[in-house]
Amino acid sequence: xxxxxxxxxxxxxxxxxxxxxxxxxxxxxxxxxxxxxxxxxxxxxxxxxxxxxxxxxxxxxxxxxxxxxxxxxxxxxxxxxxxxxxxxxxxxxxxxxxxxxxxxxxxxxxxxxxxxxxxxxxxxxxxxxxxxxxxxxxxxxxxxxxxxxxxxxxxxxxxxxxxxxxxxxxxxxxxxxxxxxxxxxxxxxxxxxxxxxxxxxxxxxxxxxxxxxxxxxxxxxxxxxxxxxxxxxxxxxxxxxxxxxxxxxxxxxxxxxxxxxxxxxxxxxxxxxxxxxxxxxxxxxxxxxxxxxxxxxxxxxxxxxxxxxxxxxxxxxxxxxx
Length: 322
Ligand code: ADP
Ligand code: TRP
What we know:
Layout: E1 2-7, H1 15-28, E2 33-38, H2 40-43, H3 50-66, E3 74-78, H4 84-95, H5 98-102, H6 105-112, H7 119-133, E4 139-141, H8 147-163, E5 172-174, H9 203-211, H10 230-238, H11 241-253, H12 258-272, H13 277-284, H14 287-316
Bound molecules: adenosine-5'-diphosphate (ADP) and tryptophan.
């Protein structure tokens, strides 16, 4: 199965990115042909500072490698090392009705958050569809907020194939068990809400952040509701099912404070991410090796993309000098 996904280098990686996207990307590396890219063209919609974009692009690569992505098994590359995606995005634009684009909720959400309504932001789903279709990807593992984009991609593959001929493959989305990860304030964890728990935080900062998770004011002795508790939602992502069941009982019985369960969350954070701080430092000290990985993977990805683009151009009558 060919698996593809992208992650934007638009800020520091956090638990939402990890549990919704990166974790399943890493798990899927065992039995599939994987293409994972750092979506730097997409991030020009929001970060328009060259040094910062370069730095954040590198940080996503370092984060993936530190969390256990194996560059021997997976293609990890920069979106911009396959510039053909922008060409495919144009061709898709020519067969896609404006009505479909108008229905994209992420554009509306971003405008509502105060981002300027640029054409880049509006056309974002076209570029994302090109990212997926250019590798004839079968499966796209993402967080829930991206599913509409995959459905639009399916529609665009259909428009192209119906207009010209059967060239593009219809992809399927894949969600993991954590469709929405809450932040410290209980809203969806997101860089733009300032409510993230980042990966690779120093132990003291991680503890401080976890202790600041918002909880209700139920007194210690009273029963508590696991369903509405943000700490419990995060614990569920990190603890074994047995431990989760145990905490669930303790919540319902009452007699424990939120401080205790937060402390347990700190321990889980340390177990899962603390152990990776060293790997992050190791990869950070080897920028040439990281560059090598990105380039080699980028070349492999580009070779696939160029083949598909030849079919695409041929199907619509676009000629280029060889
Ligand atoms: P942010 O909201 O912080 O800007 P991104 O939009 O860059 O995060 O998200 C990158 C990936 O991580 C996407 O696949 C998205 O679905 C997933 N993701 C991010 N935050 C969350 C969250 N809180 N819950 C579930 N998935 C998330
Ligand atoms: N839009 C995705 C996000 O914001 C990133 C992305 C870009 C992507 N192109 C993609 C994800 C292709 C999956 C497939 O998180």
